[in-house]
Amino acid sequence: MPNLNIEAKKANTYDAIVIGSGVSGGYAAKELTEKGLKVLMLERGRMLNHVADYEAAMKHPWEFQYNGQLTNEQKERSPKLARDYPYNEMTADYWMCDRDSMYVEKKRFDWFRPDIVGGKSIMWGRQCYRFSDLDFEANARDGHGVDWPIRYKDIAPWYSYVEKFAGISGEALGLPQLPDSEFLPPMEMTFVEKEVRKRIEKNFPGRHMTIGRVANLSAAKEAQLGVGRGPCQFRNRCQWGCPFGAYFSTQSATLPAATATGNLTLRPDSIVREILFDNDTQKGTGVSVIDSQTQEEREFYSPIVFVCASTVGTTAILLNSISDRFPNGFGNDSGELGHNLMDHHFRAGARGTWEGDHDRYIYGHRPNGIYIPRFANIGDDKRDFLRGFGYQGGGLRGNWRRAVAELSFGEDFKNTVTEPGDWSMGLGGFGETLPYHENRMWLDKDNLDKWGIPVVAFDAEFKENEQKMREAIKNDAAEMLESAGLKNVRTYDGESFPGSAIHEMGTARMGKDPETSVCNGNNQVHAAKNVFLTDGACMTSVSCVNPSLTFMALTARAVDFAVGEMKKGNL
Amino acid sequence: MRPYLFSPMIERRTAIERISLLVGGALSPQLTAGLMGQVLNEGDSVEITDAQRDLLAEVADVIIPETDTPGAKEAGAHEFIIRLMRDCYELPAQEKFYAGLARIDERSQTAYEKPFVDLSRKEQIAIMTETGKKDKGYFKQIKQLSQVGYFTSEIGVTQNLQYMPIPGRFEGDVPYEKGQGVIMNAR
Questions:
Q1: B7 lies in a domain?
Q2: Less crowded by CB within 10 Å, the N or C end of chain A?
Q3: What is the complex's ipTM, to 2 decimals?
């Protein structure tokens, strides 16, 4: 009955398969479908319908049960997630159950795995900054990692392209180390932030403070209104899902655009076990998928595959895709697959209080803070560490949660905490980490998850360069705050583990040389040119800026290249 | 869409049985379903008597009393604390918390030979002042819990704070006059 098999295969064949539906996967699906390709987008998590399924979003504070805290049961099902705040009462159902696939930590690695269509594009922090040539040239300059195969000029038009659709609010500064985006109007700084900005820029020539650049619609333009998005309402509950579609997510932006083409098939609950490979053509031919709910296994086929399953997810799939040609993982001729795992280090900085000005306040909830672009190791600012850091922070008045004189209670206590507290201002660094070969992830083949797939294991750490940078982050923050007139300035250095910043990158890096990298400057796997890696896995170094905008730009660029190559018959 | 996002019932029952064995069966499964269809903690919880509930409500009300707005008792802050203890704290932490509550009543008995709930407000304030000095850690905990329970309740939020569910705009520098109230935090 050969005809039946051919028919069945045809029904499971698409022009392109996209693995993952987050920032990168959603963007790949939008671009591919808009170019006329029939696309299957696979997502291991459950369906999360835009607006209708954002259950926490419109609740009043008193409609929650636990003030955001987790129940014992939620802690028990995901003990690793429960170590940090992104997993909480309001978002608990957005994250995966750790116990379904309990990963191994040789050293602590905080791996935040979503379990929904949209991935982390629902819960992300939305800060958007362009990389610059300071970043793309960094590896070549100091010899760590391999050189990026691209430069800023290669990606600049694609930044503009995605920004116009995504909608990035911010202020143009004209700085070479932090190129400006296509901006929607900037959000306003608070009274204290404006004062501190003036003083920092006066006292430290060459340093700048600006409002955060953020994927919230400070104004909605045609590109956003057209997919059903509205302007930001300044509720600052973004991580629970926005009923107004006011921040960029798969659901608010790329999914409606892709769906409108009529070319998209979205398949939730679909765990990709492996990418299929044909030795005759030296190409990927499709994927093998397990239905997470039925355990049923089936295959889908396509001439182009975009792997956008998140940094660790993408590399885990590649490592699990074993063939005669690739005994050590798909495209892993270099042996670099799983290596050079990076994240930003953070949670070091300083804060202080501002005396007086109790007659000034704010209106609304700004889903954004301030940003101080990198200044270390630029020009004459030479340091005892490599690369640099930026600061995120903000200046606000204390809310009712503050602890007032420890022993007070009763009427005075109540009256005090119902008034706004003092102004205070904090600066927290986000630092670049170096691409260390020995920082890595792999599959623990003796340890299978709920679906029979080997679990991921991690062995990564921050090292001396990062520790030295953290000292500078604390000292520079304290120095700037003190010079700006803040009192009681204190530094802090909270524990920062790889993974905690949820900016994990690397493990399948881009490079010019197939001997030392996994994919090329167009995000093609060197050894299987129709398979594209465009999420954080492809990153060769990590800059100090939030990376999602770069994933969007790289993805749109790679899709344009892929479809061009397909039309030329090169794929 | 999946019908059920939490671990299967059978695993939870096993967990409850295991805990029952450990603590000799002294359990009160709180089977109240949550607002979001969540199955709450079914096992390791201290059983609360009406007297404990009343005592907790009274203590919270001394910490956050009625002024020109209602106090913690009317706002139901104690219900929040009981729920949080039951579902989010491990059994030893729950026991420790209710032991601290019992000590407040003991101080009341020692000083006035009456339970705390029967004292005048002036006497209650004296006992809580004593608790703050002699039992600092516990005082801090119950004060903080009362604060959170009250200022996340409907009365706490709507009658004491500036509540902005949909502000529609952000302004970074507006005049403030005492009495307008702190803005309820977004999350």
A1: no
A2: N
A3: 0.94
Taking alpha carbons only, the member of A49, A51, A34, A41 closest to residue A262 is A34
Q: Closest approach of chain B CAs to the CA of A34, in angstroms?
A: 27
CB A231 within 8 A of CB A244: yes
The closest CB to that of A62, out of B38, B40, B154, belongs to: B154
Is B148 near chain A, with CB under 8 Å?
yes
**C-alpha closest to that of A440 among A456, A464, A463:** A456
The reply to whether residue B175 touches residue A360, judged by beta carbons under 8 angstroms, is yes
pLDDT by residue (tens digit) across A492-543? 999 899 999 999 999 999 999 999 999 999 999 999 999 999 999 999 999 9
Asked if residue B33 is part of any domain, the answer here is yes
- Identify the bridge partners of residue A490 per DSSP, sorted by sequence position: A351
Res A406: pLDDT: 81
Per CB-CB distance under 8 Å, the chain A contacts of B170 are 187-188, 234, 362-366
pLDDT tens for each residue of A341-363: 999 999 999 999 999 999 999 99
- Tokens 């960094």, located at residue: A138
- The rounded distance, in Å, linking the Cα atoms of A250 and A119 is 8
What total number of domains does chain B contain?
1
Average pLDDT of chain A to the nearest whole number:
97
Q: What are phi and psi of A441, to 5 degrees?
A: -130, 155
- Burial level of B106, CB count in 10 A (0-12/13-18/19+)? exposed
Cα(A212)–Cα(A209) distance, integer angstroms: 9
Chain B residues with beta carbon closer than 8 angstroms to that of A73: 6-7, 12, 39-41, 87
Q: Is residue B23 part of a domain?
A: no
Answer yes or no: do A73 and B151 touch at CB < 8 A.
Answer: no
The residue among A485, A349, A60, A135 whose CA lies nearest residue B186 is A60
Question: Which structural domain range is residue B44 located in?
Answer: 28-163
Please tell me the distance from the alpha carbon of residue A349 to that of residue A478, in angstroms, as a whole number.
Answer: 7
Give A405's pLDDT tier (boundaries 50, 70, 90).
confident
Kindly list the residues from chain A whose CB atom is less than 8 angstroms away from the CB atom of residue B171. Answer: 188, 362-364
Cβ-based contacts of A409 with chain B (< 8 Å): 62-64, 128, 132, 143
Distance from CA of B1 to the nearest CA of A (A): 6
Q: CA A320, CA A508: separation in Å to the nearest integer?
A: 14
Interface test with A, best of B121, B136, B173, B184 (most A CBs within 10 A): B173
Q: What's the order of all strands across the beta sheet hosting A104-105? A: A104-105, A454-459, A440-448
Cα(A37)–Cα(A253) distance, integer angstroms? 19
CA dihedral A515, A516, A522, A523 (to 10 degrees): 110
Q: Is B89 on the interface with A (CB under 8 A)?
A: yes
**Considering the entire predicted model, what is its pTM?**
0.93
Nearest CA in chain A to B131: A407
Helix (H) or strand (E) holding B137: helix B136-151
Find out whether A457 and A104 touch, Cβ atoms under 8 Å.
yes
Query: Which residue of chain A comes nearest to B36, CA vs CA?
Result: A55
Residues of B with CB below 8 A from A361's CB? 174-176, 180, 183
The H or E element containing residue A479 is: helix A464-483
Domain assignment of residue B9, yes or no: no
